[in-house]
Structure formats: structure tokens, C-alpha cells
Amino acid sequence: MQKTPYGWAALIALVALTVLLAGFSAFVGWHKTTAPLALLRENSAWTIHLPVALGRIVGVLELAAVAALAIALLVPRAARLGLLGAAWIGANHVVAAVFHIIHKEWHTLTQSGIVIALCLVWVTLWYNRSRHA
């Protein structure tokens, strides 16, 4: 097996986290973009606390980040695009956690903490990959 400057273990971790987190983000981004407000409220979407149009834009931007990540996985030279997509999704989850805290939606914080921790690792992997692209 050929050695890469990035490392096989890091590449496998990057792909696994991208499939997991981008898949989740595609689902919730689509949901934020298209779901009725009552369903967003029922599912504790943080964007319910924003004006409707702004909440929909957040969903569209989440989908755009997922598209950027897909391109970056398929085109190694586009790793910086992956870094931007992962950073956007990570920042989005930090903002979501802040909104959940402000609105005392404590039941969401375990998921937020796990996703934010995974995003920190994920962004670091994309950063390292972008340095070797």
C-alpha cells in the first residue's frame, strides 16, 4: 500500500466523520429549509428562534456546506473547500448550542456537546488535509 503524506488513518477518520456529520447536516439542513414551523418547533430546531426567512437560509447554507464537503472528498485539491464546509457546520452547532442555552432547551445539549466535539476533530482533520493538498 502506498504511503500518503496525510496518512491512511487520518484519511479513514476524515471520510468516516464526513459521512457521519455531513449526512446528519444534510438531513437537518433539508429539514430547516423545507419543514413546517410546527415540526421544527417539535424537533427543537434552534432556527425556530429566528425570523422564518433567516432560519431557512441557515438550512440552505448547511446544504451548501455539505455540497462543498462532497466536492472536497472527491477532489483532493479542493480540501480547503472541505475545511470551510466543516468549519461552517461546526460553527453552526456552536451557535445552535448557544440558542438552546438561551431558550433553556437543556434536552438538546448532550447532542450539541457530542457533535461539537466531533466537529473539532473533523475541522482539524480537514485543516491537516488542506495543508497537504
TrEMBL record:
Entry's localization field: Membrane
GO CC terms in record: membrane
Keyword tRNA-binding tagged: no
A Pfam entry, by short name: DoxX_2
Membrane-spanning parts: 7-30, 50-74, 81-102, 108-127
UniProt entry keywords in alphabetical sequence: Membrane, Transmembrane, Transmembrane helix
Membrane topology: Multi-pass membrane protein
Keyword Ribosomal protein: no
Major subcellular location class: membrane
Protein name as it appears in the record: DoxX family protein
Organism annotation: Alteraurantiacibacter buctensis
Organism phylogeny: Bacteria, Pseudomonadati, Pseudomonadota, Alphaproteobacteria, Sphingomonadales
